[in-house]
Amino acid sequence: MKNLRKIILSAMLAGVLVVPGLPASADSKDGKRDHHFRKHDRHGKSHGRHDRRHSYHRGRDDHRRYAKHHDRRDVRHGNRGHHNKAEIRQDFKDVRAARKDVQQNRQDLRADYQELRRDRAELRRDIRSGASREEIRQGRQEIRDDLKEISRERGELREAEGRLQSARSELKSDLRKR
């Protein structure tokens, strides 16, 4: 009797838990068919990719394992790739070299600014500690030299950026010509 009572109570509990979920699992299309897999709409027009899915197969040979597929070009023999032309390869090398030159000039300019900061800090320390006029004059001369070096490095950086820009534009024009 106890087992029967447990079975009935567990069935009622399962029913109570399942009943609220029934409306959520109802069909949302209200009796309409699922049109996702149809090849044609109501007017007979084709839609979607489903009817074009296997259009690339040309015949029975294409399904074999080692069949030759001719739908792609062979870049090794076609000589259509822009990397195969010597002029364009040289343009890529020029752009790469110009980038390295710009990067080097930026590093040099950064180092010059750090040197200027160090020299200014050293001059401030000398002035605070009461150094001689000769040391102060020498510190100021070092700062003037650093500023000249920075202005020279800025000019070199501008020139390098101009070379990079011209190399990029030449590469773009050569790629458009091909």
Distinctive features:
single chain, 178 residues, mainly alpha, 4 helices, 0% strand
Low-confidence stretches: 50-54
Q: How many beta-strand runs?
A: 0
N/C terminus separation: 91 Å
> Helical percent range?
55-70%
Specify Rg, calculated over alpha carbons: 39 Å
Q: Sketch the topology as an H/E string, one letter per element.
A: HHHH
Residue fraction in strands: under 5%
Note the overall shape. elongated
Number of helices: 4
- Sketch the major β-sheet: none
User: Could you report the average pLDDT, rounded to the nearest whole number?
Assistant: 79
Structural class based on helices, strands and sheet pairing: mainly alpha
Descriptive notes:
The chain has a domain at 83-177. 62% of the residues lie in helices and 0% in strands. It is built from four helices and no strands. The chain has helices spanning 2-18, 75-78, 86-129, 133-177. α3 packs antiparallel against α4. The radius of gyration is 39 Å and the shape is elongated.
SSE order and pairing:
Blueprint: H1 2-18, H2 75-78, H3 86-129, H4 133-177
Quick take:
This protein has 178 residues and is an all-alpha fold.
